[in-house]
Every structure is written in structure tokens, then in C-alpha cells.
């Protein structure tokens, strides 16, 4: 189908303005050369590397979820919702974006953070606090779930139109819709870079964002494949089904020609570590990308995704003839919560 038909369908949806769009598309030649050098190989052994800078969306320090929230919060406004209760990790980027979006739309926000109760306030939690979030720190998910229900019931009793975010089915697909648009930006930007109609390899993390880009490619006939690195251990097992389900819902809502098929996105594990903690590979990748390209990645998401890309290139599992587009989805405020690990790291 025509790209414009997809954009027209998106235009029909309620939406608020939060993200700075048309994020940069850049090449990373020095990173490519450094990876080749570390392999003792010619530059041709490493694919040409590009990066889509979704970290530069601006809102609340930037990141992919600024696009997601544009549709999610318009959906809430349409339904008269005025209070959001969110259950999420101590270092959740989602919780930061929901906080800033609540501030922007005048909603009340409770974030029940369900782990790392003793970790110092930094990064996302600090920003959420600045944006006016009511933050409740509890040690585990069952406690978080029951507290969230309790808060939701109390807010409702007090006459507010409150919702628990994870109960909302639209939440699952809002980000994929936002990233159909990223797909159309990439379409234009790759054409401008002389890569029109070439096979490309999109590289990101398991989630709505890479799903939306792949869905765009599938519907417009672009020869783009996609690899998603798992940031949680259970993801590769469950994510294939999640992609099919979510993309079918987006396709239905927007009248797209097709949803995703099994195999449209390859999910890989092995670079995950423990969720919420960084990995040796992510720290090394952050150093390498920062010191060759001046581009910052984060310790919990994009650093792991890049360590996956570097690891798979070195293992010979990435076709060097197909340029890779690394989707930088943001997460940068969490960098400062890992200052010691980043500072003390020594190259081997
Ligand atoms: C920085 C970052 N990148 C990627 C993801 C993957 O998920 P999604 O694409 O659904 O946002 C997350 C999820 O929390 C994230 O915080």
C-alpha cells in the first residue's frame, strides 16, 4: 500500500503533540571501522552502520515513548480519564514519559515502582518526581499490583476517572502506531542517503517501536528485515506471539493491508543480563559508540541492543552486505544511575 495511505489513516486518530519528529538519520563510519579493527578484519566484514536518533525526540529528555504517548494520552483524554496509575520498574522509561505526559495534560499520576527499593533516586525516577508524580516504592510485583488496585479504587471513590495503565489494551498498540511514522521517516531518509529500495536490516529492542517500523515495511513492500534484542529473559519466547497480536490490532484499526507474519522480526537473547541491571557488553558498547561517534547509549536498553549488534557481527551472524539501521530508542536519563560501572570500566 502507499505510504501516504498509512499516514492518512494515522491522521484520523486522536493525538496530542509531544515529540519532535523527523529525528536525524546518521551514518556511523568510525564505529564500523572500530568494530572491523577489533575483529582484525577488513571494513567489508562489517555492514555499513546507520542510526535513527529516536533519542532526540526532545520531550522529557527524549526517547521513543514520546511518540507512543501522543496517541495514548489523546485516547485517555477522549475517555475523560484524569488519573493514571502505573506499575513499573524503578528505572522505567515508560514511567518517566507517563509522568511528563500527565503533567502536560493536567492528569494526576501514581507510579508504583516494584523493585530496587533501596536504589538511590536518579534518572527516570527523579524526572518523574520533577513532573509531579506520586511515587510509591514497593519491593515486588504482587505488592505493587495490590497497591495499584487500592490507589485506583480510592481515586475512583474520590470522584476521579482513574485507570491502571496496564489494564488498557490501547497502551499495547499506541507505540506501534507512533513507529509506523518512524518507518515513513526512514523511508524518506534512506532514499535521500541513496539506499532507495535496497535491503536494509533494522536493529532494535523487543517492543512496540521496532514492531511499528517492520509493520510499515511489510505494508509498503520495503525489503527491510528486523532483529530485536531481548531486554528481558522471557521475551524471545513470548514476543513472536505478541508481535502478531499487536500488529493485527493495529492493522485492523488503521485498515492496513497486512499484519506481521511469524518470522518478520527475529528476536535474539544472550545480551539481556538481569533486567534493570546493565551488562559488561552494554558498558563496553556504550564506551565504544561514545568514543567513536560521540553518541550516547543507555545501560539497560540501547547499550544491550548495541552489544547484541556488535556480538552478532563478530560471530558472523549479520550479513555484512546489508546496511544496518540501529534504532536508538533513548533511555538516556538512566545513564547517570550507572555512573560507577561506566566510570570504572576498563577495556580488556
Ligand atoms: C529505551 C527503550 N527502548 C526500547 C524499549 C522497548 O520497548 P518499546 O519499543 O515498546 O518502547 C523500551 C521499553 O521500555 C525502552 O525504554
Q: Which descriptors would you attach to this protein?
A:
348 residues, alpha/beta, Rossmann fold, six-stranded mixed beta sheet, 46% helix, globular, binds pyridoxal-5'-phosphate
Can you walk me through this structure?
By secondary structure, the protein is an alpha/beta fold. It folds into two domains: 3-63 and 170-344, 3-Layer(aba) Sandwich (Rossmann fold); 82-160, Rossmann fold. It is built from twelve helices and ten strands. The chain has helices at 3-11, 29-38, 65-78, 93-105, 123-130, 141-157, 169-192, 208-220, 235-254, 280-293, 302-314, 339-344; strands spanning 25-27, 49-53, 83-88, 108-113, 134-137, 162-164, 200-205, 224-229, 265-268, 324-328. A six-stranded mixed β-sheet has the order 1-2-10-7-8-9, with helices on both faces. The mean pLDDT is 95. Pyridoxal-5'-phosphate is lined by residues 63-65, 93-94, 175, 205, 207-209, 301-302, 329-331.
Could you give a short description of this structure?
The protein is 46% helix and 14% strand. The chain is an alpha/beta fold.
What does the secondary structure layout of this molecule look like, with pairings?
Blueprint: H1 3-11, E1 25-27, H2 29-38, E2 49-53, H3 65-78, E3 83-88, H4 93-105, E4 108-113, H5 123-130, E5 134-137, H6 141-157, E6 162-164, H7 169-192, E7 200-205, H8 208-220, E8 224-229, H9 235-254, E9 265-268, H10 280-293, H11 302-314, E10 324-328, H12 339-344
Parallel strand pairs: 2-10, 3-4, 3-6, 4-5, 7-8, 7-10, 8-9
Antiparallel strand pairs: 1-2
The structure holds pyridoxal-5'-phosphate.
